[in-house]
TrEMBL record:
Name listed for the protein in its UniProt record: Stress-response A/B barrel domain-containing protein
Pfam families recorded: Dabb (PF07876)
Entry-linked InterPro entries: Dabb (IPR013097), Dimeric_a/b-barrel (IPR011008), HS1/DABB1-like (IPR044662)
Subunit structure: Homodimer.
Top-level taxon: Eukaryota
Organism (species): Lactuca virosa
Domain Stress-response A/B barrel: 48-142, 156-250
Length: 260
């Protein structure tokens, strides 16, 4: 099975000066109808990130892989999800753990993630389309510090999972989080940098820190890598605290279009 307080909905707050109750109700109705609330972080509204990495068996027929991705992307119809995308990785940059495909989804709460995990349609996709064709799986969940909007199709993601060394103190862990969070200010092409500590440990393979850097497109990933000295300097700051890293690149595919 893939994946994890009561659901809260972020509603706009309007201050209307019109004294008449009727006008106030009409204005509020119009505003609510036209308003498209962004996903914002607050004490009452936090976005939960859910990333699953799959390693598809090498001899699997392409039609079965397509069925897996179609089933996963079809889960966008569930009201529980704020954002969901599944597709083939652009590249896997890790030598110790290699994966071929990724699911990225967002939820308004841990409870929504748990409901998604137990939903009959999700369970069906896992049982029928995923388990029979994969060799390995890894899943990490965290509460995001930066998930202001859903990333657009065509956006590129660099997803990183960090396994910290044993017996690392809280100060060292905080330093790792601080350095990773500062990457956004070093690389101006990063539109979002979602970062946090994993709270689901069953399928995380011991990795405890996760991040997603969202960029406009695949070309921006190459530009990120071209600044080798800056990348190296950031890594050196936390190298002594990290045991291993899993890094993958992913481009969000366009939405599925129904065949009529």
């Amino acid at each position: 099975m893939l994946c994890a307080p009561a659901r809260t909905r972020l509603l706009p707050s309007f201050s209307l000066t019109t004294p008449q109750p009727l006008f106030r109700r009409l204005n509020s109705l119009v505003l609510r109808r036209n308003y498209q609330p962004p996903i914002k972080m607050s004490a009452q509204h936090q976005i939960v990130e859910h990333v699953v990495l799959f390693k598809v068996k090498p001899d699997v027929d392409s039609s079965k892989v397509a069925a897996m991705l179609s089933g996963l992307n079809g889960l966008t119809s569930l009201d529980l999800t704020v954002h969901l995308s599944a597709g083939q990785l652009l590249r896997s940059r890790s030598s110790s753990l290699t994966f071929t495909h990724m699911l990225h989804s967002r939820y308004r709460s841990k409870e929504d993630l748990r409901e998604y995990a137990a939903h009959p349609e999700h369970v069906r996709v896992v049982t029928e389309n995923i388990k029979p064709i994969i060799d390995d799986i890894m899943a990490v969940d965290w509460i995001s510090n930066d998930a202001s909007v859903s990333p657009k199709p065509g956006s590129a993601m660099r997803v990183s999972f960090l396994k910290l060394k044993e017996n690392l103190g809280e100060n060292e862990k905080a330093r790792v989080l601080e350095v990773i969070g500062g990457i956004k200010y070093q690389f101006q092409s990063i539109e979002q940098l979602s970062l946090g500590e994993n709270f689901s440990h069953e399928r995380a393979k011991g990795y405890t820190i996760a991040s997603i850097a969202v960029l406009p497109g695949a070309a921006d990933l190459e530009a990120l890598d071209s600044n080798a000295e800056l990348v190296k300097s950031q890594k050196e700051k936390v190298r002594d605290s990290i045991e291993s890293v899993v890094v993958v690149d992913y481009v969000i595919p366009p939405p599925q279009v129904a065949n009529l």
